Amino acid sequence: MLSVEQAIARLLADAPGPPASEPVPLAAARGRVLAVPLVATVDVPPADNSAMDGYALAAADWRGADQPLPLGGRVAAGQVGGDHTPHTVTRIFTGAELPNGADAVAMQENCRVDDDGVRVLKQPVAGDHVRARGQDTARGANVLPAGRRLLAQDIGVAASVGCAALPVRRRLRVAVVANGDELVEPGAEAGPGKIFNSNRYLLGALLGQWGFDVVDMGVAPDRPEVIAERFSHAADQADVVLSCGGVSVGEEDHVKAVLETIGQLSLWRIAMKPGKPLAYGRIGETPFLGLPGNPASALVTAMIIARPFLAACQGALPAETAPLMVDAAFTAPAPDRQCYLRVRHTGRGLEAYTNQSSGILLGASWADGLAIQPPGLAIEPGTPLQFLPWALLA
Amino acid sequence: MLSVEQAIARLLADAPGPPASEPVPLAAARGRVLAVPLVATVDVPPADNSAMDGYALAAADWRGADQPLPLGGRVAAGQVGGDHTPHTVTRIFTGAELPNGADAVAMQENCRVDDDGVRVLKQPVAGDHVRARGQDTARGANVLPAGRRLLAQDIGVAASVGCAALPVRRRLRVAVVANGDELVEPGAEAGPGKIFNSNRYLLGALLGQWGFDVVDMGVAPDRPEVIAERFSHAADQADVVLSCGGVSVGEEDHVKAVLETIGQLSLWRIAMKPGKPLAYGRIGETPFLGLPGNPASALVTAMIIARPFLAACQGALPAETAPLMVDAAFTAPAPDRQCYLRVRHTGRGLEAYTNQSSGILLGASWADGLAIQPPGLAIEPGTPLQFLPWALLA
Questions:
Q1: Which residues of B touch A194 (CB under 8 A)?
Q2: What does the pLDDT look like over A205-237, one tens digit per residue?
Q3: By CB count within 10 A, which of A96, A161, A367, B139 is most buried?
Q4: What CATH number belongs to A324-393?
Q5: Is the ipTM above a cut-off of 0.85?
Q6: Is A135 in contact with B180 (Cβ distance < 8 A)?
């Protein structure tokens, strides 16, 4: 059996190059993957400016709290800073350019305005309440790396250096094929022996959330020739084919046999629970990933195994944040495979859903995320576990 | 000054009722807010079924590992379970309905198939490898609460109980108005005294990420009559008006005066950093929230203050997950206001961006999230801090 890490490493090593780059306006760039590094072509801020409403002056002109300096000018945000008259103060507002010759701002709360001028009550020091040119971003600096999945603040940063559009990777197209004669679509009547198809909607929602274009290929019945036709068609239309169900080696599991006819396939046994069987292969040049059909297995393998692979296919940098550790508030015996438990994060610690069966999806709606139980680790109250809130898997 | 908690509590108490409900198909429901509880009208699974490929039997028929039972039938997933012949085994596959009269499944790995029948090598117990009818969801159970912001797994759960569409709240319409004569749009030329408008794109991206419809009202110059016209127009078109900049009490800050003319307004001083000044009021019936103009202040107040308020206006349940605590790997003196530090989560713990100025947005792109430093708490390496990964604020 492969460990989860080994399985992911194999997939990443086999990921094809990213899709082509295309420009998008800033308002549409959130969640997209930056194709090239963003280099600042301007300083931010573009000039020294005031961090406060107050009075700009040359700090060396200050002669004491009782010595007034006459008002020599006024500059508001959006106006040209102009020249500061020596031995005066210039009225200034937050965000306004510091006039040439001034080097400090006295907050208005620390000034007294009289007929004979403005008294600056605290001795100013050069640089006081001044935002220096380029202090946020210097011209020529790399502000965002290629492969960045753009957050709202990245959009703000791009705007702040004057970019109206960004080059991003075309969205990865991921085809979804559900397998199984037992599947009936929601809204229809589920007769005897049938169950409602949930994986199709679950996977579609996950892929949409991850920023991919979903190519919904519907349900393939358990007939090899139909599965082959469906998979080939999916591979023609998409960058990656994701299938769900039919990946075991049972006589009703046709995915393996079909893939060996129209492409190539390995059946992996991954030391994880839920989720052991996983099929990986190619149809022509198109990667194929076959997830297990049990809903909780489909969810967990999609989040833990498919997600980093698809992100690499999209050209996105891997996340580098450290694991979050939270103490368990429950007991579980040591497993032989790595378990991904559906848990809630409460004031007492992590609490586990009562039924961790791979057939049960409802626990994932009850839970706040997954906790990782490594093989061989028995859990007791107080055992620290790696916690993956759903949001970190989104 | 108000604490952050007090400010949020005041806003929540004043949130108007949620928007109307509308049905959406499952494929479009992720991220939307459920308007009524989802009650299961079917059992999931709808009948007892097999969790394994193997042989179904009545456990009481077993006479020993060396006593073969003849093959009496076959049932695959999607087929009607039918009747099980006593004193035989029925070939069965994962997901297939258990035939009437059988009460256990023997895994095929534990069976030996010979010409004279199938030997079940381990004594079966009733219930072995059987997924009981309704074990995931029982008919009549509340599976999702009203106000739930729908996750991918919730979409899967809704599909599993046969729902093809869900009643959700119409998306909240949030108008964004940026204020300031110094603002130039990205892509244009920023002359002397001007800076690129970043908050408009930052807030637009945040609001989009939170699932709201953004009504972009552009930039209002620093002229009271134009601001008044812009705000009134925004209030007519949107459920909430969000403005950015101009909320101090300086003579160039017109938001307060304008709101007092066309509506009502309180100027709050919140004990948080970045972000102290916040304006809250109404234009007619439409809530108005005025965020500070510094980019890091705008980001933090939007995430910490505006987000829970807007979620309440949308009709969403508040998140109830416990705080994540991570040790600091840096030093910071005790502040008088609650600080929201831009931090990275590394193997050493939380590391803080070197410049925590409210004018600097780049730190938010560098960081993995915010750490909360309560007033009066000096931070040393090892001090546990509440950590808010960006994903939890998305």
A1: 46, 78
A2: 999 999 999 999 999 888 899 999 999 999 999
A3: A96
A4: 2.40.340
A5: yes
A6: no
